[in-house]
Design brief:
The chain has 142 residues and is α/β, with parallel strands linked by helices. It has a single domain, classed as 3-Layer(aba) Sandwich (Rossmann fold). 49% of the residues lie in helices and 18% in strands. Strands 1, 2, 3, 4 and 5 form a five-stranded mixed β-sheet that branches.
């Protein structure tokens, strides 16, 4: 049996709702919705020179999930590991005003509408994973 792997590198911004949504949607994909072997990469570790994170993104298809249009995760991945397989800008999914909201940034503050945003972004991540060409997925013996 073989395992297909895809990395998901989400925003680490904690000052706005977009960052929170990107992280929670990524966790949802990894824990609840995954249909192939997905792993999350830690953006702060990645930026600090984490070789394991950077090497993974060089070898395996990687998707960035950014909380706003600064696209820190995407730009970092491209800078240190090369071309990415896909990028999601959460502000384009949930709206810029929602993404940049600084009043609601913690899990305990989330309401039903925010949970719907998480589901929406998680759905976009799953679609993006599904659109990755099978030729770009590494197949490793389990």
């Amino acid at each position: 049996m073989s395992v297909l792997k895809v990395g998901v590198l989400s925003c680490s911004g904690e000052e706005c709702l977009g960052g929170t949504i990107s992280r929670l949607a990524t966790r949802k994909v990894l824990e609840e919705l995954k249909f192939i072997d997905t792993v999350t990469l830690c953006l702060p570790l990645y930026l600090a020179g984490g070789e394991e994170e950077r090497n993974f993104a060089k070898v395996y298809p990687t998707i960035s999930v950014d909380g706003c249009d600064k696209l820190c995760a995407k730009r970092s991945t491209e800078k240190y590991s090369g071309k990415i397989s896909g990028s999601i800008d959460v502000s384009k999914v949930i709206g810029n005003e929602n993404a940049l909201n600084t009043k609601i940034v913690r899990n305990k503050d989330l309401k039903d509408e925010h949970l719907q945003m998480i589901d929406q972004v998680a759905g976009e991540i799953v679609k993006m994973i599904g659109s990755i060409s099978p030729d770009s997925l590494n197949i490793n013996p389990k």
